C-alpha cells in the first residue's frame, strides 16, 4: 500500500525521503487508489478488506509491499494483500533466514543477478534488495565456490 507524499495515514507520515528509498511503491497498483477509504478504512469490514486485496492481487510489487509492512511492523491497513490480522499473525510466525527464503522463493532472480554481476556481491545485493552478508549466505547455501565466498570463509577462519 502506498501513500501520497507528506500524507498522514493512520498516524504515520510518509515523507518523500521514505518514498524515494522504496521505489517499488511507484509501480504499485494502489498508487492511484483512494488509500484512506480502501486500504485504511476507519471501520474495516470484510467487504472493504476484500476490495483492497483485489487491488493487491493484481499488483506487480505485492511481495515488496508485504515485506515492507512486515519489516516496518505496520499495524493498520491492508498491505501486500494481507489484512491487519494476517499481518499480525505473519509477524508472530517463525521466519526462515532471508538467505533460505531467497533460495526457496527467488532462485530465478538469484540466478539472473549472479549471471549479470558475477562475483560482485554488492551489486547482487542491490539487485535482490538484500545486504551483502545475505548474499554471502546464499552463495554458501547453493554451494557457490566463487572467490568472494572463499575469501569470506578464510577471513572467518582467521578470526576464530
TrEMBL record:
GO terms under biological process: cell redox homeostasis; negative regulation of DNA-templated transcription
GO cellular component: cytoplasm
InterPro entries with a match to the protein in the record: 4FE4S_WBL, Whib
Function: Acts as a transcriptional regulator. Probably redox-responsive. The apo- but not holo-form probably binds DNA.
Organism, scientific name: Streptomyces sp. W9
Cofactor(s) annotated in UniProt: [4Fe-4S] cluster
Residues that, per the record, bind [4Fe-4S] cluster: 30, 56, 59, 65
Name of the featured protein: Transcriptional regulator WhiB
Cellular compartments annotated: Cytoplasm
Molecular-function annotations in GO: 4 iron, 4 sulfur cluster binding; dinitrosyl-iron complex binding; DNA binding; metal ion binding; protein-disulfide reductase [NAD(P)H] activity
Transmembrane regions listed in the UniProt entry: none
